[in-house]
Design goal:
By secondary structure, the chain is mainly α. It has ten helices and four strands, in the order ααααββββαααααα.
Length: 210
């Protein structure tokens, strides 16, 4: 039988990425950050407010963020100003700052009756799981994004990791600082992660008048 006469094959399922924006996830803009904070504060959601602030400040991968323990950020009755964790992907430590806004929300959450005697900073509400899973965290991030009317497929957990460093790079152009904050071992990884291209380089160069 001729190939031309064979019936056309059609997929039985709709492709998972149909109608979705795929590729590198966008960072949140400063106005998005403040809008989400206001919504969480108005809702009285202490856990999600602390989680959101910590995600922005720490710049950690989702797997490292959900695995944080209370002792990682809280000592001698107060939240640390700086903390350090071992990255699960690289096995190397990365340090991050905890701003005053984040410290206040963390203190409020840690002192919540729901947190008494618990080891992990983000306990799971699912029986048998000691802390939030990365999938649960992804769903929470999606709810934050959709609350602003943004396209959910354009954002994800890596949006939280990229949000602060994108602003740092935009204001300073300091790739080395961003590399250290992200815990990357190679500068190439940082360049790809930020999506730096020749236009960024030219814009920075144009801003320097000698």
């Amino acid at each position: 039988m001729s190939v031309d006469l064979l019936p056309a094959l059609r997929p039985s399922r709709v492709p998972w990425n149909k109608g979705r924006i795929i590729g590198q996830k966008r960072p949140l803009l400063p106005r998005h950050v403040w809008s989400i904070r206001v919504r969480l504060e108005m809702a009285g959601n202490a856990r999600d407010l602390a989680l959101f602030n910590m995600a922005v400040d720490s710049k950690l991968r989702g797997c490292d963020l959900v695995g944080l323990r209370v002792r990682d950020v809280f000592v001698a009755g107060r939240v640390k100003e700086r903390a350090s964790v071992i990255q699960s992907k690289t096995g190397k430590p990365v340090r991050f700052e905890i701003t005053e806004t984040t410290r206040l929300s963390l203190e409020r959450w840690i002192r919540d009756p729901e947190m008494i005697g618990l080891e992990f900073l983000w306990p799971s509400r699912i029986h048998g799981s000691p802390h939030l899973s990365t999938r649960q965290y992804a769903r929470i991030v999606r709810s934050w994004v959709t609350s602003l009317g943004l396209e959910p497929s354009a954002y994800g957990t890596h949006s939280m990791r990229r949000t602060k460093v994108a602003q740092i790079y935009k204001k300073t152009g300091n790739l080395r600082a961003v590399q250290l904050l992200l815990g990357h071992t190679k500068m190439d990884s940082t360049v790809r992660y930020l999506g730096v291209d020749i236009e960024d380089a030219l814009s920075l160069s144009e801003g320097i008048d000698l």
